[in-house]
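Run log, item B.
One chain of 133 residues. Sequence copied directly from the ordering sheet:
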Amino acid sequence: KGFVPMQGADGWQLSTPTILSMACHRAALEITDKAGIENLRKKSIKLTQYLRFILEEFNLKNDNILNIITPKNVEESGCQLSILVEKNGKELFDKLIQHRIIGDWREPNVIRLSPVPLYNTFEDIFRVGEALS
C-alpha cells in the first residue's frame, strides 16, 4: 500500500519535523550555545531578581495589592514571576500592555512576566517600573 500522507495541515502535525523547522531549531541552539547556558542562567537570575525588586517597590506604594507567588529561592524557579493581584488586576495588566510590556494574564487574577535572558535587558525591566508608576 505504501505511504499515504494525511491531507491538509493535519499532515504537518505529526512525524519528523520539516527541514525548515529544523533549520530554525539549529539556529536557536547555535545562539544559545554561543551565549552559554551558564551565562544565560546568571543573567536570568539577575533580571528576575530586579523585576521582583521593581514589583516589591510598587507594592509598598500601592497598599500591597500584589503577591508574588513564584518562589523567592532562585533554585526553585526560572525566569518567570507569577503575580497575584488583589484588586484591578486586569486593568494593571492592560496598562502594562499599553506600555508594550508583554506578559500573560491568567484568570482570575494572575499576571505572569518573564524576563528572558537571551533578549530582555535591564532597561526592559526598568520600563516595567515606569509603566507601573
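Observations after the first pass:
- The longest strand covers residues 81-85.
- The first helix runs from residue 19 to 35.
Flagged for discussion on Thursday.
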